[in-house]
Amino acid sequence: MVLVGGGHAHMTILKKLATFVKCGHRVTVIGPSPHHYYSGMGPGVLSGIYRPQEVRFHVKKMVEDRGGSFVLGSVARVDPESRRLFLRSGDEIRYDATSFNVGSHVPVEPLTEEENVLTVKPIENLLKARQMILDFISSGQPKLVVVGGGPSGLEITGNIWRLVRDQGAEAQISLLAGPRLLSRFPEKVRRLAMDSLAARGIEVLEGVHVSRIEGGCAILADGREYQYDLALLAWGIKPSELFLQSGLPTGEDGGLLVNEHLQSVTYPEIFGGGDCISFQRHPLDRVGVHAVRQNPILYHNLLATLEGGRLQSFNPNDTYLLLFNLGDGRAIYWRKDRVWAGGLAFVFKNYLDKKFMRKFQVSGELREH
Description:
Number of helices: 10
CATH class of the largest domain: Alpha Beta
Number of domains: 2
Oligomer: single chain
Distance between the termini: 31 Å
Strand order of the largest sheet: 5-2-1-9-21
Mean pLDDT: 92
Structural class: alpha/beta
Low-confidence stretches: none
Strand content: 15-25%
């Protein structure tokens, strides 16, 4: 069995990896880093609410402690006919069953790549952004721009404000929110977010897209220009392009097309979860709760595929809780018709996030640097 990626949807498998090994199966996990960062706590790392080691899983240690093999690298192409994975290093790995949890990325084309332009994914970029902001505010009042009107844009902006405030510094912080901040959420959620940002002197620009970013300037579709010292891009995510490039069946967004068993619609030995899949029955919102709920299904179905057994179905519940970290010690709570904001909402979010981390973090992780 080969797992590609150590993300949220694979955590139960990683925790119970010894079960596969005891059954006589050889398990390999391929990942671009020994660690996987939990995106739900990423904005808190930017502001300094959390230390990096508090929001990451030591995937390599989890795998090796349970009898599996960890390969540092990434998959460039899948050959489903010969059941081989081709790595960017030139190596290849065969599989009898494989599962993908390679996440998503923030598209940057056709932007010019610049050192002072960072996407909010991978989460490691937020560590870079934190250090850059600290460097900027040590010698002046930088112009910091966040591009994107979704939850990520909101949380990143609020936590930039906290980082600057906690250093006793000042900065010009702008959120370029596209047509409308939090456009797919209830009006009360949007109003609470706008009020929170406005109360802290954060500029929010709505009604116009960013057409391009270059030379330290965000150029809007109407011709206006926003200069920046650092720009963080949070304007949406796309699944990995691995599946399209490998000729595997995909959904309209390019994600691996899977059935109710989280199994490729064409190749039953290929599974996937999280942001990198397209659910055949109906599109899923790109929220971490789905990946977490897919955990036990992927564990059961991969074991059933290797051992012989009946597959379980993933039945997504479109009712879920979202909590947005505003960066000022408060959060916005939204579930169905219930919407409110305050310090208690952040306490609840912090509790849920840390509970999830404790469930899967290996011993000694918090003592690492």
